[in-house]
Amino acid sequence: MIVGGRDRHLRRPHGRPGRRVAATLLERGAGPLAAVAAALTTGAAVGLFNGTLANAFRIPPFIVTLGSFSMAEGLTLVWTRGASVR
Question: Is residue 45 situated within a structural domain?
Answer without folding.
Answer: yes
